[in-house]
Amino acid sequence: MALDFTAIDFETANGSRASACQVGLARVRDGVVVEKTGWLIRPPAGHDEFLEWNTRIHGITAADVADALGWDEQIEDLIGFAGDDVLVAHNASFDMGVLRAACEATAFDLPAYRYVCSLQVARKAYTLPSYRLPVAAEAAGFTGFAHHDAVADALACAHIVIDAARRMAAGDVTTLAETLKVRVSALAPAVVAA
């Protein structure tokens, strides 16, 4: 097996996990980022209010996503990019929660992805004063990125896992997780209302 995975990061419009307004993705093959992409998302109806707190963090406004495609129009592109990869995210419970909640809000039958949390990987692989994404990414040698831009954050997350795998001599994500005693979790399918 090879160190293949897709790193993912979401930004949200408000406190609702379904309010995805930007996604960033980074595909890793054999321990190298080979492709990245990302786009703005018009959050699902009922989850589309932009709160000042969130906008202050990522800089995205309702006007920025007014002409963006909605979640239900873009989820197939996200799934197409990730394929059958294990997903990796920093504080993965948040990003997997966004993925699941937005699919529930749009009645989309989400695949049951497996995922690993790069925050947990960083806590086991490094000794740092903080394990926030910029600090952990710097330990991995990935610096100077625009934190809270979803594509930049996905790249930072990818580099943490790549570096940790190198340090642990782990040839794939599952071996890395086993070596560090970090769980490879399964994303429960979205609950689609009948």
List the helices and strands and how they pair.
Blueprint: E1 5-12, E2 20-29, E3 32-40, H1 52-58, H2 62-65, H3 71-82, E4 87-89, H4 92-105, E5 114-117, H5 118-125, H6 133-139, H7 150-168, H8 173-180, E6 185-186
Helix pairs in contact: 5-7, 6-7, 7-8
In short:
The chain has 194 residues and is an alpha/beta fold. It has helices spanning 52-58, 62-65, 71-82, 92-105, 118-125, 133-139, 150-168, 173-180; strands at 5-12, 20-29, 32-40, 87-89, 114-117, 185-186. A six-stranded mixed sheet has the order 3-2-1-4-5-6, sandwiched between helices.
Largest sheet, order of strands side by side?
3-2-1-4-5-6
CATH class: Alpha Beta
- The secondary-structure class comes to alpha/beta
What fraction strand? 15-25%
What would the average pLDDT be, to the nearest integer? 96
What CATH architecture do you see? 2-Layer Sandwich
Number of domains: 1
For the report, how would you describe the main beta sheet? Answer: 6 strands, mixed
CATH topology: Nucleotidyltransferase, domain 5
- Please give the number of β-strands: 6
Key words describing this protein structure:
6 strands, 8 helices, about 20% strand, about 190 residues
Kindly describe this structure.
By secondary structure, this protein is of the alpha/beta class. The protein has a single domain (5-186), classed as 2-Layer Sandwich (Nucleotidyltransferase, domain 5), CATH 3.30.420.10. The protein has helices at residues 52-58, 62-65, 71-82, 92-105, 118-125, 133-139, 150-168, 173-180; strands at residues 5-12, 20-29, 32-40, 87-89, 114-117, 185-186. A six-stranded mixed sheet has the order 3-2-1-4-5-6, with helices on both faces.
